[in-house]
Amino acid sequence: MSVTLADVAARAGVSAATVSRVLNGNYPVAGSTRSRVLRAVDELEYVVNGPASALAAASSDLVGVLVNDIADPFFGIMASAVQSEIGPGPDGAGHKMAIVCNTGGLPERELTYLTLLQRQRAAGVVLTGGAVEDPGHAEALGARLRRLEAAGAQVVLCGRPPLPEPGPLTVTFDNRGGARRLTEHLLSLGHRRLGYLAGPAGRTTTRHRLEGHREALSAAGLAGDAERLTVQGAYDRAAGYDGALELLRRDPGLTAILAANDTVALGVCAALRDRGLRIPEDVSVTGFDDLPFAVDATPALTTVRLPLHDAAARAGRLVLGRETPPPGGVTTFPTELMARQSTAAPGR
Predict the structure, then answer these.
(1) Model's pTM, two decimal places?
(2) Is residue 95 part of a domain?
(3) Is the residue at 122 inside a domain?
(4) Spatial separation of the C-alpha atoms in residues 98 and 150, rounded to whole Å
(5) Alpha-carbon distance 165 to 302, whole Å?
(6) Is the dihedral of CA 256, 259, 261, 266 positive or negative?
(7) Which residues form the HTH lacI-type domain (predicted)?
């Protein structure tokens, strides 16, 4: 027996009209009430029925692309690459229409977009960026993705680790290995007092890059001070600026700072200049991702290159079924160390 709007209302303890307002998004509803309704929708696996013609069109034309922040070049590159694979070609002929969903990195917004895409009978979904490490969210995310796949949608994860089997097709990066090689590069130059600016806590990308960094420190016998010389923050310039100052407060003799990504590294460079420190003569700086501006920074930024465009393009082909899935459903793209002018031997 199919679940009705009244069933959802009873489970959430609200009126059917309130459920309708939440699902249609056409009337203000208190945040706590909205959360109860969406939780009931999820628990009861309720799917809204719409006009058959609209649903048929959506199932053949719509692919959702979830990003944390479309203004961030990291996500902009991936969204563009996915769209280039699924959208109209130069001759006007096309495949699907990409709908970019900006989550702001909020777990609840990610779940809401997946519910909305299921309601629209999306033909596919590509989720980009690191995953939130929260058991409750992981369970809710898995349930939504399974329902999307059961409804005929192809789901592809891009830039995040695989889910437990049987999980969606996955295109991921060797973040841990890239961070390890970056730290090994600094150690090979002679650095022994290294500060690390990690990304936000509770995200897979943050954890994997931090683990790679600490693996290299442990192998060199330098893990003892790693916790004290690690500062966590956002993936933005302000976090780099403030984090660099905090690391220098903790150890004024630092000779190198590794940043969570290239944008954070720009903030680090600004803070060091404001303190009258030279890069790399006084402090070496590294980033991660190799975004387009990294090579044009002054000095050019040593970083780890992620093949963002190639990986996302493959995700686009997989979501359309235009490429044979890899064995086990997981493709891991290697990373590449890009040694440039922002790193040198300490005290050069």
Answers:
(1) 0.82
(2) no
(3) no
(4) 21
(5) 37
(6) negative
(7) 3-57
